[in-house]
Structure formats: structure tokens, C-alpha cells
Amino acid sequence: MKEIYYLNKESLPTMCVPHDCVIKDIQMKDQTLIFIFEDDISSRDSIRAIHPNAKSLIIRYHLTEENGFSVYKWRKPGRFSRKDGCYRRLDNSQLFAYAGHLEYLYHNVGYCSIIIKLFADSGVILDAYVDYLEYEWIE
Predict the structure, then answer these.
(1) Which of 43, 122, 130 is nearest to 76 (CA)?
(2) One pLDDT digit (tens) per residue for the chain, 139 residues
(3) DSSP 3-state assignment of 10?
(4) What is the DSSP secondary-structure string of 35-80?
(5) For 9, how many CA atoms within 13 A lie in the half-sphere containing its CB?
(6) What are the backbone dihedrals phi and psi of residue 90, each rounded to the nearest 5 degrees, phi first?
(7) Which helix (H) or strand (E) holds 32?
(8) With left for phi above 0 and alpha for psi between -120 and 50, is residue 112 left, alpha or beta?
(9) Phi-psi category of 73—alpha, beta or left, where left has phi over 0 and alpha has psi -120 to 50?
(10) Exposed, middle or buried, 121 (CB in 10 Å: 0-12/13-18/19+)?
(11) DSSP of 89-127, one letter per residue?
């Protein structure tokens, strides 16, 4: 089953958040960023109530421009410093290295924009310019 959500309309959509679900693969095809989630995704509380028979989920983010996303990772400022760190921008290709170790926490949507909070060994933020996204539920 496919669901399409447009971020370039007057009103923004309400969509489910695959909270705590692991992204097992990340791909980039034809200006589309693709997240393929873990098998047996319906075992997660965030999915069980919405799609209890779902085996997996694929989310396709159609970018408004080529390489229309940025990736940031939480870093501490120094080895001996106990003060807060900051998010530092990574090369976009480094996002693909996190596949299998990346957990989806939540997202915030705006007009042609989505900010996704992820978690690997620390916080990861994906900021993308998206005109629409597609949820494909595998049952």
C-alpha cells in the first residue's frame, strides 16, 4: 500500500512517524532519497497501531533539487571537555555508511522541507528540500 504526502501544497500533511525503527538500507535514485526499514517493523509500538500487518516500510523522499539535503552529526568539542558539543555538517555520502545502524526518531515538516532526527552512535540530523514523499508499506 502506498501513501503520498505533498509538502508543496497550502496545508501540510499529517503522517505517521516510524519512531525507533531501524533503517536497514539507504539509497539514492533519480533525485529521490530512499529509506528501507527493518523487517518485522510492526513489532514497534509506533507502527503496530497504524499498520499491524506491515512487514517493512520504504520511504521515498523526492528532492526538489539534486543533492538537496544536508547531514549533520553531534560532536563533542574536545576530548577532555565535558561541555556541550554541536552539530557539524558531514559530507552527504557519509549518510549511506550509517545504513543498518541508524534509528529513525522523528521528523518536522515545513513547506518543501523536512528535518529528520536520526540516531546512530549519537544524534544525526537530515535536512532535506522535499516536494513530496511516499510511504510504501510492505505487507
Answers:
(1) 122
(2) 999 999 999 999 999 999 999 999 999 999 999 999 999 998 888 898 888 899 999 999 999 988 899 999 988 776 666 667 888 999 999 999 999 999 999 999 999 999 999 999 889 999 999 999 999 999 8
(3) coil
(4) EEEPSSGGGSHHHHTT-TT--EEEEEEEESSTT-EEEEEEE-S-SS
(5) 9
(6) -110, 165
(7) strand 32-37
(8) left
(9) beta
(10) exposed
(11) EE-GGGGGGGTTSEEEEEEEEETTEEEEEEESSSEEEEE
What the block records as the C-alpha cell of 55 is: 512487514
Residue 119's identity, in one-letter code, is: F
Q: C-alpha grid cell for residue 58?
A: 520504504
